[in-house]
Inverse folding.
């Protein structure tokens, strides 16, 4: 009887359990900024989950900051392009600013790579210059089937993790 009760509890509450492992904090900011930039909010949530696990104070060994792990140079450049006045690096730890810059930048990558999810994600992690060169020189063709051809293991893993996490977010939310 206890087994049946536990089984019933697990089945009825499993979405709560799964949401524990795939949270969706900052939902209003993510939805607003994603929509403003023409992105799917659950994709943005997946990028944030993979990049920082929703830790707004995250700092990578390479210097990326905040929820969407924006590099300082990218932050300054994007802030200038977005006409954010008095931008400072500390603002990359502000969830609203970080998500605004990160989604703006990601949307630009989607435009640059003609809506190609895999190329945009690879560029978000590995740099737009690298991905442009890989595509131009035939090192990688930008498809899901040839992800193994991405020369940077970190970028290859990032794309796979975001894809897997995005699928989970779509299933849960």
């Amino acid at each position: 009887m206890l087994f049946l009760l536990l089984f019933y509890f697990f089945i009825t509450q499993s979405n709560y359990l799964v949401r524990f492992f795939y949270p969706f904090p900052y939902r209003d900011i993510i939805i607003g900024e994603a929509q403003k930039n023409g992105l799917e909010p659950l994709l943005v949530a997946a990028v944030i989950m993979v990049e920082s696990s929703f830790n707004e104070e995250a700092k990578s060994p390479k210097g990326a900051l905040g929820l969407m792990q924006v590099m300082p140079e990218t932050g300054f450049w994007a802030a200038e392009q977005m006409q954010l006045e008095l931008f400072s690096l500390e603002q990359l730890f502000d969830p609203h600013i970080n998500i605004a810059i990160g989604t703006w930048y990601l949307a630009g990558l989607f435009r640059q790579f003609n809506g190609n999810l895999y190329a945009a994600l690879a560029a978000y992690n590995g740099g737009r210059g690298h991905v442009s060169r890989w595509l131009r020189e035939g090192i990688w063709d930008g498809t899901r089937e040839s992800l193994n051809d991405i020369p940077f293991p970190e970028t290859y893993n990032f794309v796979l993790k975001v894809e897997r996490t995005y699928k989970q977010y779509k299933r849960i939310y």
